[in-house]
Amino acid sequence: MNQYVIAIDQGTTSSRAIVFDHTGNIVSTGQMEHEQIFPHAGWVEHNPVEIWDNVREVIGSALSKASLTRHDIAAVGITNQRETAVVWDKNTGEPIYNAIVWQDTRTQPIVDELASDGGVERFKQKVGLPLATYFSGTKIKWILDNVEGAREKAEAGDLIFGNTDAWVLWNLTGGPDGGVHATDVTNASRTMFMDLETLQWDQEILDAFGVPASMMPAILSSSEVYGQVHSSQLLREVPVAGILGDQQAATFGQAAFQPGEAKNTYGTGCFLIFNTGEEIVHSKNGLLTTLGYKLGNDKPHYALEGSIAVTGSLIQWLRDNLGMISTAPEVETLAAAVKDNGGVYIVPAFSGLFAPYWRADARGAIVGLTRYANKGHIARAALEATAFQTREVLDAVNADSGVPLTELKVDGGMVANEALMQFQADILGVPVVRPKVVETTALGAAYAAGLAVGFWKDLGELSANWGEDKRWEPQLPVEEQERQLRLWKKAVTKSMDWVDEDVK
Q1: Is 413 marked as a binding-site residue?
Q2: Closest Cα to residue 276, out of 298, 252, 257, 296?
Q3: What are the pLDDT tens digits along the chain (504 aa)?
Q4: What is the 3-class SS of 447-486, one letter each residue?
């Protein structure tokens, strides 16, 4: 009985439920994709009802594949796409608008308006984040300003907000019938509203955004019992005991618990997190200061983060928009057909440039094209774009921390791509290490939940579960590494200053 922990991984493109055993190995998985909604250029939405329906479906799928029932599950952990904002009616459980996704850029006018008094770093000392379309705060304001009747309902206390972790938790624990409205410190740190020191919502910033405090979920630790699954659900009475935003969850799953440890997750976007321990480090090089994790009543652990908007989604773009490939893994075969990128560089600034530039005026660019270039060169340039962006973020981490990273732990869907991992090691000049369990995001959420209920006793037990699967050593000569970086940086400059008043 109670031999397993289940993690709900509510991601950008799909929702998954993964069952883990005590050694941190995967027992079974259920997964369903949800629709990506693009109403206008730069707008990205999801249907929250579809997401919740899929979450219930994948839980059932994961349990049935392993012939398990709720009695076999010790706890539920949740991890999620951060910054994706849902606003719903607490009385009916109905969202008043689609979820506005972290990639969405429609709120740039709100950013500009708020930045007119104090610049984009107006709140950064307190919340660790620059004003940007990326974070939840401007999305909530947009919904209140643009959905008819929303502001009145919010002022009356009828509307509540959450990133998708809070949406899943609320529904899982009962929804309108006593659902728990809460989030953890890692998700709260992505709203622009949480004070890094106090771990509480900041009333002054909420007022500046025009967001009623009554909408906000309670801020709890990343590992504690928030409530039990409602009696109407398949996992009824199982404790929900862990929440971590997806990138923090991946860091936790990689057992990067100590200051100076880091990981890079290769998914829809790419996210490098560097553990700074109990110290809040304010970046001078374009990184975000964020919460790493907080276990129960223990002190919080902080982190520096380099966020890259487009990596895996660039490969999806080659597949879905250009029709260059029919499945994502084909990109590796196509890239292997050429010996180098042929002078072609792709800067995938589809949502502007995130770390370390934070340029909302940037847009995607393919540069260096000649008649020699073919689809193999474009495929290779698409893969290399991920590695180049990671190098720039790692340079910023090294500058901020003053302690150069000696190896990089990696995870996420793209780490199965051998060519990318080798080029990543080449362009970084340090080894790249893949763990045996690459589903570290779900594993991290499972670990947080399991710790809260005593399924695992401490961090040492989790560290003992981590095992190396493969290591890539750098092979590129330094001169060639420097030449490629110089050309990449030149390509990045070509993507900037594109959006002006006439370009949407």
Answers
A1: yes
A2: 257
A3: 679 999 999 999 999 999 999 999 999 999 999 999 999 988 999 999 999 999 999 999 999 999 999 999 999 999 999 999 999 999 999 999 999 999 899 999 999 999 999 999 999 999 999 999 999 999 999 999 999 999 999 999 999 999 999 999 999 999 999 999 999 999 999 999 999 999 999 999 999 999 999 999 999 999 999 999 999 999 999 999 999 999 999 999 999 898 888 889 888 888 899 899 999 999 888 889 999 999 999 999 999 998 888 888 898 899 999 999 988 888 989 999 999 999 999 999 998 888 888 888 899 999 999 999 999 999 999 999 999 999 999 899 888 887 778 889 998 888 888 889 999 999 999 999 999 888 889 999 999 999 999 999 999 999 999 889 999 999 999 999 999 999 999 999 999 998 876 655
A4: HHHHHHCCCCCCHHHHHHHCCEEEEECCCCCHHHHHHHHH
Q: Contact, 317 vs 347, CB < 8 A?
A: no
SS3 482: helix
12 is in an annotated binding site: yes
Q: Is 316 annotated as a binding residue?
A: yes
CB-count exposure of residue 414 (10 Å: 0-12, 13-18, 19+):
buried
CB atoms inside a 10 Å sphere around CB 68: 17
Residue 221 annotated as lining a ligand binding site: no
H-run or E-run covering 496? none
What's the Rg (C-alpha) of the chain?
22
CA atoms within 13 A on the CB side of 404: 7
What residues are paired with 228 via a beta bridge? 239
Q: What is the DSSP letter of 368?
A: -
Residue position matching structure tokens 């928009």: 321
Domain ranges across the chain: 4-247
User: Is 434 a known ligand-binding residue?
Assistant: no
Q: Are 273 and 215 spatial neighbours (Cβ–Cβ below 8 Å)?
A: no
Instruction: Write the secondary structure of 78-146 as one string of H (helix), E (strand) and C (coil).
Output: EEECCCCEEEEECCCCCECCCEECCCCCCCHHHHHHHHCCCCCCCCHHHHCCCCCCCCHHHHHHHHHHH
Task: Select 4-247's CATH number: 3.30.420.40, 3.20.20.70, 2.20.25.110, 3.10.20.600.
Answer: 3.30.420.40
DSSP secondary structure string, 357-412? T-BTT---EEE---TT--HHHHHHHHHHHHHHHHHHHHHHHHHHHSS--S-EEEES
Query: Does 69 appear as a known binding residue?
Result: no
Q: Match 């493969």 to its residue by tokens.
A: 470
Residue 357, marked binder: no
Separation of alpha carbons 290 and 58, rounded Å: 30
Structural contact between residues 7 and 449, judged by C-beta atoms closer than 8 angstroms = yes
Q: What is the DSSP letter of 71?
A: G
Q: Rounded distance, CA 479 to CA 147, Å?
A: 55
Report the distance separating Cα 133 and Cα 139, nearest Å: 8
Question: Is 14 assigned to a binding site?
Answer: yes
